[in-house]
Amino acid sequence: MIEDANADDCSADTERQTDTERQTDTERLSELFWSVARRLRHSARAALAPWDIAPSHSRALGVLMQHQALRLSELSDHLRIAPRSTTDVVDGLQERGLIERTPDPHDRRAMLVSLTDEGHRVGTAIRAARDADAEQFFGALSHADRNDLTRILRTLRG
């Protein structure tokens, strides 16, 4: 009986160690992820510096380059931000002459946002700079590692 009790104690200790190790591994993984995310964010901001443009504005330009004209609600969905935040982004880009609002021909109550010629020019230049920055940032990874990371991040993004 004493041997059974000792065996149970050893088993419980092993389970506790495993739980503790898992928690530590999870904490390490989380910290590592945030460290890389911070480094990537700083790198992206540096790549955008020549245009004095916020990352959220750059993302909106990229979406509009892909989708042409969109309603604000559609742009919000693509950016995964609140409609009010989208309005702020669109206002900022319109003030700089990078986008324009036009009435939706299918619903006169709605407005469409689209890039101006300057918006296309700036968007294209930003895309090239961000692509070069991403290539430098992820350059240490093999093609297979990049594919694995892409798959993992898509899974986590949901």
Overview of this structure, please?
By secondary structure, this protein is mostly helical. It has one domain: Arc Repressor Mutant, subunit A (Orthogonal Bundle), CATH 1.10.10. A 3-stranded antiparallel sheet has the order 1-3-2. Strand 2 and strand 3 form a beta hairpin. The longest helix is centred in the N-terminal third of the chain and has 47 residues. The model has no long low-confidence stretch (mean pLDDT 89).
Structure, briefly:
The chain is mostly helical. It has six helices and three strands.
Give structural attributes.
single chain; mainly alpha; three-stranded antiparallel beta sheet; 6 helices; 3 strands; elongated
Mean pLDDT: 89
Write down the oligomeric state.
single chain
CATH class call = Mainly Alpha
- What is the number of helical segments per DSSP (H or I, 4+ residues)? 6
Spatial order of strands in the largest sheet? 1-3-2
Query: Could you name the CATH homologous superfamily?
Result: Winged helix-like DNA-binding domain superfamily/Winged helix DNA-binding domain
Shape call: elongated
Number of domains: 1
| Biggest sheet architecture | 3 strands, antiparallel
Radius of gyration: 24 Å
> What share of the residues lie within helices?
over 70%
DSSP strand tally: 3
The share of residues in extended strands comes to 5-15%
| Series of secondary-structure elements, N-terminal to C-terminal | HHEHHEEHH
From the 3D structure, determine the CATH topology.
Arc Repressor Mutant, subunit A
Which architecture name does CATH use? Orthogonal Bundle
Structural class: mainly alpha
